[in-house]
Amino acid sequence: MEAVKEIPISGRNPEAKYIREGHHEHPSLLPLIDIPIIDIGQLTAPSEADQKIRSALSTHGCMIVTNHGVESWFLDKLRMLFKQFVALPEEEKLKWKREVDGFEGYGSDPAPNDFLARDWGARLRITIRPEEFRQLKYWPENPPEFREVVDEYSSKVVTVYEVILKALARSMNLKETSFLHKMGEPWIMYARFNFYPSCPRPDLVFGLKPHFDSTVLTVLLQDKELEGLQILKDGQWFRVPIVPDALVINVGEQLEILSNGEFKSLYHRGMVDSERERVSLAVLSLSNPQSGVEPIEELVNEERPSLYRKVIYEETTHFDYYKSGRTLIDDARV
Ligand SMILES: O=C(O)CCC(=O)C(=O)O
Ligand SMILES: [Fe+2]
């Protein structure tokens, strides 16, 4: 099948199918955004940081968190294991390839349609929570430690989500567990390991096209050295800085709905480097599809009627949305 064969090759000039429309400046020439960097180490009880988080996410749609409980050496190891996977010979990686019309596994994204350029990148997607939803046939066994380290990272990220979602609920005078409860149990996590080959013309391609995440929140581990995440704010694209060992937290469409519009989902994209390969790891959190996604009751009242109707979303429908060009919010908006 095509998903692995279509992966762009580092250092090559992009063919027509990868070239985005229009004329664009080099991605590194865009301004850097100043987004809040928040220490979440002490966030287990009500504190001033609750309001800081609320304000960061409602103003910027994202924040950078430190003291999140995942050690620096562990993050290095996680990035390194994925880089080792990417460096394997193609036949070996094919063992964990995404099937035609499949959702999990390693490969490039399908062409969205005949007009939009393909991304200069490839991804490994796997379900990581709850454990019984995991499909191990898509979990690389090479390098040998990959599965174990990803499993350990999953539990650490669950804690990060719990800490942040509880703080957000407190900041809005809701019961601490409101968001988590509304997501339904088990709420779901997917891992998306992104690989961006180098490209001599980063101005011509997207590593990952502009998009909203259809998540509650996304926890993004950036490359240790190479910038590439860019966000749109007030009509202008900005570079997001690398803060060593920090995690980037993005608001997704489901949080926009759950919070009845208090938080707006972040429009963002991934760019590539002219000389070096880049990786990132997004862990996506989503409501249980059986619970559906709708605003929390306490956030709907006469002054602020519900802005969204209840929608059902499964990440396996990601490519259907992708191809149609619609988003979850388009379906939910009243
Ligand atoms: O690679 C990046 O920095 C962006 C990744 C991303 O937005 C995603 O996986 O949803
Ligand atoms: Fe994203």
From TrEMBL:
Domain annotation Fe2OG dioxygenase: ranges: 187-287
Pfam family name, one: 2OG-FeII_Oxy
Keywords linked to the UniProt accession: Iron, Metal-binding, Oxidoreductase, Vitamin C
PROSITE patterns: FE2OG_OXY
RNA-binding as UniProt keyword: no
Keyword Metal-binding: yes
GO molecular function: L-ascorbic acid binding; metal ion binding; oxidoreductase activity
Superkingdom of the source species: Eukaryota
PANTHER family noted in UniProt: OXOGLUTARATE/IRON-DEPENDENT DIOXYGENASE (PTHR47991)
Family assignment from sequence similarity: Belongs to the iron/ascorbate-dependent oxidoreductase family.
Protein name per the record: Fe2OG dioxygenase domain-containing protein
Organism in which the protein naturally occurs: Linum trigynum
